[in-house]
Specification:
Number of strands: 10
Strand content: 15-25%
Radius of gyration: 21 Å
Structural class: alpha/beta
Oligomer: single chain
C-alpha cells in the first residue's frame, strides 16, 4: 500500500492528513507552524522533523509515502518554495513533492476539484481561480504593507484608526474606542500609538483586533458599520478580476478565512454586494481543515505521474 500526505500550513499550526492511495484517511494530526511569513527557520525545521516523523509512523516508513503536498502562504516567492522543499527533503523523504499555495489546497478541499474560485480573508486577503483549461488568475495577497484590504489586519487597523480619530475629535465618539482600549489595556491615544509602534507588535497582534468589529456592530456603532461596508467592497474588488478573466461569473466561490467565516456582518455585506454584481455566483464555505484538499492534490499529482 502506498500513501500520500497533505499539509495545511496555517499561521500558528499545521494540519496534516495521511491517506492511502485510494484516498482513505488513515491519520490526522496537528503540529507546529511551517509558515515562513511568521516563523523563524529553526522552528520551521523542527516542525517539519516532527511532522515527517509522525507521517512515517502512520504509513510504516517514508519509503511507503508516494506523494506529499504542502499548502502554505508565501510560496509565490521562489525563495520560500525552495526553503520548504529543502525542509521536506532534509527529513529523508525522496518521493513526489508538490509545494503550492494554501489558497489552492483550500479550494480543492471545498470543491473536491482544483477548478473554481476562492476568496480568503483571514490575517491577509487573496482571491484565486483556476478554470477547466488550467488558466489561473489571482488578486491581492501582496502583504499588509501595500495590500490585504478586507482582511483581519485591515479591519484591525481600521479599528485602531477609528479609536485614534475619535480620541482627537475627527469623528464622533465610538464604542470602538472602549473595546480597543480594554483589549489592549490602554487608556489614551498616546498609549495606543505606543502599542502600534512597539517593535514587539506584529501584524497578527493588529489582526487579532478584528474580532472586536462584531460587538461594535451589535451596538449599532456607525464607525464599525462603516468598516464593514468598506471591507465588503474591498473583498468584492478582489473577486471581480478573477471572475472576469476566467469567465466564472456564474460559478461557485469558496469563502475562507476568519473574517468571512466568523464575522456575519462582513460576510452578509459581501454576499449582498456579490449578488448585485454576479447574480449567478454561489458561495460555498471552505472546510475547516484544508489538509484534505492537500491530500486530494497529492493524489491528483500521483495519478498524473503514473
Amino acid at each position: 500500500m502506498r500513501y500520500v500526505a497533505g499539509m495545511d500550513g496555517g499561521g500558528t499550526k499545521t494540519a496534516v492528513t495521511v491517506a492511502d492511495e485510494h484516498g482513505r484517511a488513515v491519520h490526522r494530526f496537528t503540529s507546529g507552524a511551517i509558515n515562513y511569513n511568521g516563523q523563524d527557520e529553526a522552528s520551521i525545521r523542527q516542525s517539519f522533523r516532527a511532522i515527517m516523523a509522525e507521517i512515517a509512523q502512520a504509513c510504516g516508513g517514508l519509503g511507503h509515502l508516494a506523494y506529499v503536498c504542502v499548502g502554505a502562504a508565501g510560496v509565490s516567492n521562489p525563495a520560500v518554495r525552495q526553503r520548504l522543499t529543502a525542509d521536506v527533503r532534509e527529513c529523508g523523504y525522496a518521493g513526489g513533492l508538490l509545494i503550492t499555495g494554501d489558497h489552492e489546497t483550500a479550494l480543492c478541499g471545498a470543491l473536491d476539484s482544483p477548478v473554481g474560485m476562492i476568496l480568503i480573508a483571514g490575517t491577509g486577503s487573496i482571491c484565486f481561480g483556476r478554470d477547466a483549461a488550467g488558466h489561473t488568475h489571482r488578486t491581492g495577497g501582496c502583504g499588509y504593507l501595500i495590500d490585504d484590504e478586507g482582511s483581519g489586519y485591515s479591519i484591525g487597523r481600521e479599528l485602531l484608526t477609528a479609536a485614534a480619530k475619535a480620541g482627537d475629535g475627527r469623528i464622533p465618539p465610538t464604542v470602538v474606542t472602549g473595546l480597543v482600549y480594554e483589549r489592549l489595556g490602554v487608556t489614551s491615544v498616546r498609549e495606543l500609538v505606543g502599542f502600534v509602534h512597539d517593535k514587539r507588535t506584529n501584524k497578527k497582534d493588529v489582526a487579532a483586533l478584528a474580532t472586536l468589529l462584531a460587538p461594535a456592530c451589535d451596538a449599532g456603532d456607525a464607525a464599525a458599520l462603516a468598516i464593514v461596508k468598506k471591507s465588503a467592497a474591498a473583498l468584492l474588488e478582489l473577486v471581480g478580476p478573477v471572475a472576469e478573466r476566467l469567465a466564472m461569473q456564474g460559478g461557485r466561490l469558496v469563502l475562507a478565512g476568519s473574517v468571512l467565516l466568523k464575522n456575519a456582518y462582513v460576510r452578509d455585506a459581501f454576499e449582498a454586494l456579490l449578488g448585485q454584481a454576479y447574480p449567478g455566483m454561489r458561495c460555498v464555505a471552505a472546510p475547516a481543515d484544508a489538509s484534505e484538499g492537500a491530500v486530494r492534490m497529492a493524489l491528483l499529482a500521483l495519478n498524473n505521474d503514473q
